[in-house]
User: Fold these one by one.
Assistant:
Number 1:
Amino acid sequence: MQANVHNLARQPAHSFTQHLERRPFRVYTARDIDQISALSRLSPAQRFDMKVVASVLPFRVNQYVIDELIDWDNVPDDPIFQLSFPQRGMLVPNHFERIAELVRRKVDKSVLDGAIDAVRSELNPHPADQMEMNMPRDAEGDRIDGIQHKYRETVLFFPSQGQTCHSYCSFCFRWAQFVGDKDLRIASSEADTLHAYLASHGEVSDLLITGGDPMVMKTRHLAAYLEPMLKPEFDHIQTLRIGTKALSFWPHRFLGADDADELIRLLERLVEAGKHVAIMAHYNHWKELDTDAARAAIRRIRSTGALIRAQGPLLAHINDDPAVWARLWRDQVRLGIVPYYMFAERDTGARAYFEVPLARAWAIYREAMQQVSGLARTARGPSMSASPGKVEIQGVSEINGEKVFVLRFIQARKPDWVQRPFFARYDPNATWLNHLEPAFGEKAWFWEDEYLALRDEKLARVFD
C-alpha cells in the first residue's frame, strides 16, 4: 500500500490536473487596485476607502482568488472578499480619517508615509512579545534573526525567500512582515544559522517553516533548509511543519508551477526518510476547499505521505457562524485533512474589525462541534496565542455562585503550566486574555509570577 502511495506521488502534475484549466499566476497590489476589473461594480467612494486602507495595511490578491473564490454578486458581504480585500472598518475611524484627509489633499509622499508609519506603530505590529521574548540570542547576546523559539519543543523559522504570500489575508497577524519596514520584519536567509541552532538544541522535536508563506519560495530554496534535517545530527527533529495558505490562495503551486513536481518529490523524500511532514494549512471558510484545483492539490500532497492539518481564526464578517465551521471541518475530514485549531483573532492590525467576544467565540465553537462527528473534533479552541502561551477557552460555568470562564494552556512558555485549568471572571465583552481578570477574588493568575520573572529576564537581555 505504501509503495502505491509513493508511486502516485511520483506521477507528474498533469495526472492530477487533466480537467483543470492551466492558468498563469497574476497578482495585484495596492498600486494595481484600479486594474482589477471586478471592482468596477463598486462605487467610487468604496474604491477610495479601499485605497486608503491598502496604504496602511498590506494588500495583495491574485487572479485565482478573484475568479474562483469570490462570489461577486454577494460583494461586499462575500466572506472571501472580506478575507482578501480592504474594508473601511479595518482602520478605526480616527486612523482612517487621518490618512484619508492626507490622500484627498494629495500631500507630499514623505508626509503621507510619515503618517502611515505613525498609524502602523499604533496597531501593535508584533503581538505576544514575539520580538522581545521569542527570538533567541547567541553567546554574545546578539539576536539570532529569523528564528523564534517560544515553546521548548518547537522552533519557528522565517526564510527571507518566503516573506510574501500568494495573496494577503486582511486579518493577518503577520501583516508587519509585508509593509517594507526592515525593523518590523523577522527573516533570515542563513540556512547555516538555522541548522547550527537546531543541532545545539536537542530538546527541539518540531521545526516550523513559516513566513509570509514558504510556498512562494522556489523548491530549491525550501530544500536547502529542509533536506539537511535528514542528517544524523538532526535525528531529534521528528516533525517538519510548513505553514501555508497556498492550498487556498494558489493551489496551482502544487500542480502546474514550474517546480511543482520537484516540490512533491521533496515532500516524498522527507517522508520516506522517516520524518513526519505536516502541511499546516490556513483555512478560513469552506469555500476555499470548493474548487477543482484546491481538491486536486490536496490529493497530490496527501499522495506523498505528508499530513495536512488545518487551522485558522474565528473572524467577524467571515466565519463567525457555527454552520460555517461545521461545514469547514466536515469538508476537511472528507478530503483527508485533520482539523487542528480554531484561534481567537490576535490583538494586532485590523483586530477591531475582526475580533469576536470570547464568550461568543466559545458558543460558536461549541455549537459547531455539536454538528460534527468525532473525526472532526480534533480542532482545538477557541485558542488565544498570547505571550504566556496558547490559552484555550474550555467553557463558561458557574462555581460557588460566580460565573466564570474555564481556561487552560494548550501550550505554554513553562511546560508545567500546560493542561492546568484556571478561571477568569466572566466578561461578555472580553476579546483577549488581557481583558480578563482572575476569578474568586484572586489577585493574580497561578502562572503570573513565573511569567513576569521570565519576561523580566528576557527583556534584561534585550536591553543589556
Number 2:
Amino acid sequence: MTGALADLALQVDPVAVADGVNNVWVLVVCFLIFFMQPGFALLEAGQVRAKNVGNVLMKNMTDWTLGVLVFFVVGASVSVLVGMLTTPGAALDAGAAWGHINDPTAYIGWFFGAVFAMTAATIVSGAVAGRMDYKAYVFVAAAMTAVIYPAMPGVAWGGDGLISGAGYLGEAIGVGYLDFAGATIVHMCGGVAGLVGAKMVGPRTGRFDENGNSQAIPGHSMLLAVLGTLFLAFGWYGFNVGTQATVLAAGDGGVTFQGAALGQVVLNTTLGMGAGGVAAMIVSAAWQGKPDPLWAANGLLAGLVAVTGAVPHVTWWGGVILGGIAGALVLPTYRWVVDSLKIDDVCGVFAVHGSAGAIGTVLIPLFGVTSTGGYQFLGVDQLIMQVVGVLVVGTWTVLATIVAFKAADVLFGLRVSEEEEELGLDESEHGVSVYPEFVAGGSREGPTVADGGIAGGSGDD
C-alpha cells in the first residue's frame, strides 16, 4: 500500500462507512417495497369484474398518494406517541414525536416506515372491491395511515411500546413480542381491517342467493392476478430482507458484513413462499379436483405472510413448515369466511394476510433457531407473548376499523347505489372504461367483459 493510500485508509471512519452503506441499503429496499404497490394493483384488478378495474386502480393509487402525506404529518408521530404512552416511565413528548418533520437526518427512517404503512392500507381495498363508495374509501385510507396502522408499530417496535420488552405487557410477561417485518403488525392489521370493512359494507349484489349460498363472481383476469402475485413476491424480498437493515456492522475490529443474518432472512423468505404455494396447490387439487393457479398464487402469498415475522427467528425447516401451514389453510379459511361468516372478502385478504400472519407469528417459538443455525425452543413465556401480541393487534384493529367505517358511513355512506354497482364503479365513480374495446360492434351496447363475456377461471370461488 502506498503512503497516500495508507493515509487515506487511516482517515476512513468505519462507523461512517457502515452507516452510509446501511442507509443506501435501506433506500434500495424501500424502492423494492414500493414495487409491491403495482403488485397489489394487478392482483386486485385481476380478481374483480372488468367494470370495476379502474376503481381498484384508483383506490391503490389513493393509498399511496394520500397515505404518504397523512403518514408524514400524522401517522409516524402517532407511532411514537403510542410507544411513549404504553411504556413504563416514558415521558410524553410531542416535540419528539413530530421531530422528523424538519430533520433531514430522520427522513430515510421515516420513508422506511412509510412503505410499510402503505402496504397495510392497500390490503383493505381488495376486500371491499366492487361496491364501496370512493369518498368513504378515501376516508378509511386516511384513517388507516393516520391512526389504525401507526398504533401497531407503536406498541411493538422501536424498543418500546406495550408488547415490546420494555412495554407494560413485555415487562409483565418477561419477553418482548417477535414480529420481525410485520406479519401481524402490517399484514394481519390490513387483513383484519379488510374483513371488518367487507362485513360492514356488505356483499356485492348477487354474491349470495336467497338461501344465503355463495355464488361465484369470477374475476376478469387470472393473468393479472398471478402477475401481481409475482410482483408482490419480488417486492417482498425488500420487505423481509430489507428489515435486516444492518448490512455492515462497525466495531473495534473494523467493518463486518452481516451475511449470515441476511442469508437466514432470505432463505426463510424463499422457502416459506415455496412451501405456501405447493401446499395450496395440493389442497386446491384435493378440494376442487384440479390444482388451481389462483389458489396457488394465494398460497404463495400466505406463505410469505406467515414467515414475515419469523424469518430471523426460526430454522430453515421451521420456515418451510410455517409457510406450508399458511398455504394449506388459505382455501379452507376463505371458504369459512364466505360460507360460514357470509362475508364477501373479494380478494381473500383475511385468509392471505390476516389468519396467515397470526398463525405464522404465534408459532415462532416452536421453531426457534440458534446463532449457528441449530434448533431451540424459545420458551413458554415467548409463546404466551406471541399469543398476547396477536390478540392485541387483532383487538385494536377490529375496534379501530369499526369506528373508521362507521364514521365513513355517517359522512359519505359506505356503498354505492344498486344502479351504480350494476353499471360498474369505473363508470359511476370515475367516468372511465378500462376496456372500451371489449364492446360488441364497437358500441356501448351489448355484452362486455363485465357482463361475463370473456370472464372465466376459478374466480373468487
Number 3:
Amino acid sequence: MAVYSDVDRLAPHVQVADHAVAIGPAQASESYLVIEKILEACRVSGADAVHPGYGFLSENEDFADACTAAGITFIGPSADAMRRMGSKTEARKTVMAAGTPVVPGDNGPDGNGFPTGESALAAAKKIGFPVLCKAAAGGGGKGMRLVANEADLVNAFDGARREAQAAFGDGTVYLEKAIIQPRHIEIQVFGDTHGTIVHLGDRDCSVQRRHQKVIEEAPSPVVDAALRAKMGVAAVAAAKAVDYVGAGTCEFLLSSDGSFYFLEMNTRLQVEHPVTEMIYGLDLVSWQLDVAEGRPLPLTQAELDARRRGHAVECRIYAEDPVKFLPSPGRITHLRVPDGPYVRNDSGCYEGAEIPVHYDPMISKLVVWGEDRPRAIARMRRALDEYQVRGIETNLAFHRRCFRQAQFIAGEYDTSFIGRNAAELAPRADEAELEAAIIAAVLEAGTASPASRSTAAVHHNGASTVELSGWRRQLR
C-alpha cells in the first residue's frame, strides 16, 4: 500500500499500489512529515510494516520509536542507532571509539557544538585553516560553510547556525579541518538482527554541485582492492559500534595521498543504491524486507567480494535549469526514456505528469552497467542521447557534456570537478532549441513513410546532426 499527498494523487507509485491512502496537502510538513498520519494510514490499511524510502522520515528516530510503540515494524535501523549516527558530533565520537578514522576537528567545549562564533574561532586557530563550520544535524550541504581565514570565521559560523536552525530545527555547529579537493567515497553496509554486518563495496559520488550528488559510479576509479577492503573494514566497525541493522552508508573523504576519513553515516537506503545493485546483481530492498522479517543475511563477506563484477554509473536526471541548477517545475509534454540491455531507469514520472514545486525535482535515476568503466561510459552516452524530455528544462545536456569531458573519462575528478569545469560543462544557449528541434523531427519521422524516415535529418547551425534512420543524436 502507499501514501500520497494531494499533489501526488496521480503519481506512479499511487497508480500501481494495491491500496493508497491520502495523507494531506502538498506541503510535506502537513503530509509526509506528520508521523501520526503515516501511522493512521497503517491502521486503516492493515499494514504491519513501513518502508520509509530515502527522505522525509527515513532517518527520523522519533518515527521509528512511534512505529515500534504502535506495533508496526520500521524497515530500517533502530531508533538508538539513528540517534547516535544522526548527530554528526555524536557519530564522530562513536566511530572514533571504534577505531574508524575521522576528519580532524573539534566538537566544541562539551562535545555538542560551539556556543558562539568567538569560541569557534579559538578552536579553528588550533585546527588550522581552512576549516568547515558544519551543522551537527541534517545534511545536503545545509548549515555548512568553508572558511579560509580567521577574519571570516565568526560570520560564517553565525550563517551556518542560522541555516541549520531553519532547516533542521537544530542550530548546533561544530568544526572540521577542510580536506581540499578530496574524493567523496561511500561504503554500502548491511546488518541483520543476528549480529552480522557486511559491506558491499564502494561508490564514488565526487561529482557534486552545492554538496548535492549528481553522478555516482561503482567502483571508484581510484579505489583498488586493498583500499576497498580497508575502507570496508572501517565502515563495518562504525556500523557495529551502534549494532546497526538494515541498509546504511558510511561516507568518507579520500585525500590524494590515499588517507581516508569518516564523514557521516546515512542510516537509510540511499538514492544511489542501484549502482551497487548493478555490480553485485542483488536487490537491496528485498534484503531490507528479509532483515526486517528477522532473516539472516543471505551472503557472507567473502561471497559478496567474489560476486562483484563490472562497472556501473548513475546520473540523477533533474527537472532543472542545466546552467543555473535551479528547479524547473511544470508539465512533461513529451517523454522517451532509454532502454536496452544493462540500462535501468528508476523514475516517478511519466508523459503528462506534473513536476511540483514542493519536493526534490528529480525525474529519474538513470543507471547503466558495463563489463568495465569505458564500456559503462559508452553505454551511458548512448542512453543519455536517447533520453527525451519536453515541457520542462532538465540537466540532460549537462550529463551529456560530462560523459564526454576528458578528465571525467580519465577518472581524474574530485569534489571540485563541476566548479573547476563549469564553462566546459555548461550547455550552449542554443542547445535547448536544438533539443526541441531533434525531438520534433523524431516525432514527425514516427508518422512519416519508411522512405522519408530513412533519410530524415536535422541540422542546427552546422553544429549537430541527427540521422533519424538510427534515431541517434550526436553532439560534436
